Amino acid sequence: MSTIKSSTKNVLSEHASASVAVKNENKNENKGERADKKQAVIIRDSADNEGFILAEEVALSISYNGINYAVMLVSPYDIEDFIIGFSLSNDIIEHTRQLYNIDVSHHQEHINAEVEIANKAFWKLKEKKRQLTGASGCGLCGIEALDNALPALVPVDTVALPPTSWFEGLRTAIQKAQHLAHKSGAVHAALYIDKERNVIACREDIGRHNAFDKLIGAIASKGYYDTESIAVLTSRCSLELVQKAIRARLALLVTLSAPTALSVKWANRHGVTLIHVPKHDAPRAFVPGAP
Questions:
Q1: Are strands 110-117 and 58-64 parallel, antiparallel or unpaired?
Q2: Contacts for 268-275: CB closer than 8 Å, 24+ residues apart
Q3: Long-range contacts made by residues 33-37, C-beta under 8 angstroms, separation at least 24?
Q4: How far is 186 from 204, CA to CA, in rounded Å?
Q5: Which positions are annotated as active-site residues?
Q6: Among 51-65, 86-100, 131-145, where is mean pLDDT lowest?
Q7: What is the pLDDT of residue 28?
Q8: Which residues does 52 contact at the CB level (< 8 Å), separation at least 6?
Q9: Most confident segment among 15-29, 124-138, 275-289
Q10: Crossing angle for the helix pair 79-89 and 239-247, nearest 10 degrees?
Q11: What CATH number should be reported for the domain whose range is 164-286?
């Protein structure tokens, strides 16, 4: 077992500059990645065996100020980014200054995270009394009250649409940034891309919510935030992902799969422009204020 201790304050100071080239970001992401190759029987006349790299998942237990809060299934990379993003997008903390320390311990098939937060945030957390199940694909599982599923959120300032040229070759750029997907497949990606189409950060996970939380954590802790940069999700867009974008003040959200009607309604109500990029057709932008 190895133990990693880190402080949010240290994380912020180490990444004060937002102008980070994608190749440097990708080098950092590759450190510590493990590839688990398994033998499989190829179903054909010769019935040969062949090795395949599979996507990894582990159970992550998160405790706040000594109280267990959630157990999630996650890809075992960028755990600190995930915890920061999860804490922000689930309204556990209002900003990173309320997160004092993250103590992560890695075990064979699970990870424990002890998170220290401000007393104000901790009391709010206890009042919410939200319990989450351990499914990687769930978004609203275990919520006790309708107010928690449909919370009051502060709208963001609407940002102008990017030009048509920004979307040209977007899927290819996304594929180049997805290092885990190249090895194993079976993972979602969330990317932060600037107006010149430079990939600032890419986070991948078996869960679409987890990937977005990791990206939100990276944006918040590493100083990447820019009002004109765009969050891109390879997954379908449902309500809870839009809520995460609103809380993270991300006014432009691109998805490769079609959004739900409710997610468009909430996005536009709160100033977020939601853009669906189909595989073969032109992008479709759902703009706040449009009929």
A1: parallel
A2: 269/155, 270/153, 270/154, 270/155, 270/156, 270/242, 270/246, 271/155, 271/156, 271/157, 271/158, 271/246, 272/156, 272/158, 272/242, 272/245, 272/246, 273/158, 273/159, 273/161, 274/237, 274/242, 275/161
A3: 33/77, 33/179, 33/180, 34/76, 35/183, 35/184
A4: 10
A5: 138
A6: 131-145
A7: 43
A8: 37, 38, 39, 40
A9: 275-289
A10: 90
A11: 3.40.140.10
Least trusted range by pLDDT, from 46-55, 255-264, 266-275: 46-55
Instruction: Decide if 7 contacts 100 (C-beta within 8 A).
Output: yes
Strand 273-276 and strand 252-255: pairing?
parallel
Of the two residues 14 and 173, the one the predictor is more confident about is 173
Q: Are strands 252-255 and 230-233 parallel, antiparallel or unpaired?
A: parallel
Task: Report the half-sphere exposure of 236 (CA within 13 A, side-chain side).
Answer: 11
> Which residue in the block uniquely carries the two structure tokens 């479709």?
284
What are residue 245's phi and psi, to 5 degrees? -65, -40
Q: pLDDT tens for residues 67-83?
A: 999 898 999 999 999 99
CB 131 within 8 Å of CB 142 = yes
